[in-house]
Description:
Keywords: Coiled coil, Membrane. This protein is α+β, with helices and mostly antiparallel strands. 67% of the residues lie in helices and 11% in strands.
Amino acid sequence: MLKKIAFLVVITLSVTSCVSKKVYQELESKFNNLRSSNLELLKEKDELLASKKALEANLESLKNDYAALKNKKLILENEFSSLQTKHKNLEESYDALSTQSSKKLAEQAQKNQELLAELEAKELKLAAENSRLEKLQKELKQRSEQIDELESLINAKEAQMQQLKNAISNALHNFEGKGLTVVHKNGKIYVSMENKLLFNSGSWAVGVEGKKAVEQLANVLAENKDINVLIEGHTDDVPYTGSTIIDNWDLSVKRATAIVRILENKGVDPTQITAAGRSKFVPVDTNKTAEGKAKNRRIEIILAPNLDQISKLLKEE
Length: 317
């Protein structure tokens, strides 16, 4: 067994050339930038969901305020109606007392003036409450429309991702069960390809069968210009022993960029694509068994919707 490994190492060393320190540093810098970009996208998603919850809470509060004001308006209208009745009764009393003494007439006139003043005050207060209620109704309607628009955009994005998942599953159905899975979760699509479908051990050159699978995926992605594509390279915990690159970090990045090249060559817009290497640090299974290691050696292609429209809507709040 050791002789076979040594023989493979000698062959690997004979067909690869050393990567300069400058190229390594450039790759490392690109990786760091891409990882930061990925974190920002995750953060932006969380912020969008938090903003949606805040808008829904605000909408519920406005509905409660609207109900309270409507009830208050009803009370004021009843008071106004009662005062009108009193005013009418007083006017009738005034007519009846018009033949009485001037003192009583003056007293009654004073009461009438006070009642009229109170009635005018109530009218003004009722008008102010009506104005406030109308303003609140407009604001409530605007908030409801914004919530509806936001939900419509989110539902449209989710439907788009489901259609994309179906298209990818149809395009790659010949490869499912051969180290390839397609999963739709958390609003994203995860296309996972084990290395046995793509690469030989320690290599980042894509094999014939793996290239065919990636090219079929590229045909679907090339028709979806508003999808963000993140390519993640993953390894097991066995250290890289070659001399062409440094370690599993380098290997995972190399494998990710190898997939990027195929997608770009098949017409996928490079501005949609991000390449990242995750080394051994995001396993999906144990590294204590050969089967687990095989699952951990993989390429994850994560497809996410473009959220620019939703971000723009939230910024208009």
